[in-house]
Specification:
Dna Topoisomerase Vi A Subunit, Chain: A, domain 2; binds zinc ion; alpha+beta; DNA primase DNAg catalytic core, N-terminal domain; 31% helix; five-stranded antiparallel sheet; 3 domains
Amino acid sequence: MSGRAYVSFAEVKERVSIVDALEVFGITDQFRKEGKTHAGVCPLPEHRHGPSPNPNQFKITIRDGESVFYCFGDCQRGGDVIEFVKLMTGLDNRHVRFWFAEHFSDRLTLQRGRGERAKTSKTTPQKKKARETRGPSAPQRADVQLPTTTVSTEAAEYKPIRFRLQVDPVAPYLRERGLTDETIARYGLGVAQRGMLKGYVAIPVWESPPGEFPYGYLGRWAGEDYDDEAGRPRYKWPADFPKRRFLFGLNEALDGTEGQPIVVTEGVFGALHCVQCGFPASVAAFGASLSREQAKLLIATGRPVVLMFDGGQPGRRAMKKAALTLAPHTFVRVVRLNERQQPDDLSPEEVRKVLSVTV
Ligand SMILES: [Zn+2]
């Protein structure tokens, strides 16, 4: 399909219920069904929960044939399915149409660019050019995975989630990556069975110290047949996720490892490999760079730091930069891997050899 899919809000309200939307978010089983009403703890990201959230504070029901919700707790607000999805995702009116078009294409009438086309024809060439050069944040196609992969400039500041995904911890892909039951359980890993991360390893990202819920989930396609064109990119982050503010595995790394240096890798699987090779104080930076916030988190631990990014020019450059940032505050050691080598390519013996140097 080319062009932008337009869905009518009237049709969305008629054919999509709030319970259908819960299904997409993968949180249906957090609600109890009582007749035609569903009740549970409010899942809206803006809700400020006390220590024991009330399981009756949030109701979903049918009123005048329309699916509606209301939060009797902190939010004190309600609305229809469109309002619900907007509050859950932070998407605006225009982008929420793409969300419904993407997830409910089987039951909605997708019309190409209604309204949009009329506007486009009136647009002067200069204006059109300006719009085209606005950058990658402007969605160009209706079939892009908007809510999870595209940075939306309209989205407000990112808010942490208030739910946990239901995942399959025995999915074969996790074993193929060499993860043990213990590692899978300790880091809460598994493959999502439905929702936006369906078919992805859902990797919870926690604040340090951890809150009641993860801050969000990083998705890694559970297979090596990832394909951007086919709508299954290798990695999926929630839109606008502030990943540079987190270090994967930091809470686990600090637990019971007093005095051990913190090993920092680029990727999550590299860090988990180091953990399984006997270095439980291993974390991942989610990429070949260390942000100021991530450096602060490391310095705050008071531990020595060992940087082991992927082999090759980008990794080396990033480690040099990170070492310069960290060096005035803590002891830093850099492990240089061979070109194109990643930490999880090393055998356990090799990992122990490069990391076991006394720091
Ligand atoms: Zn609420």
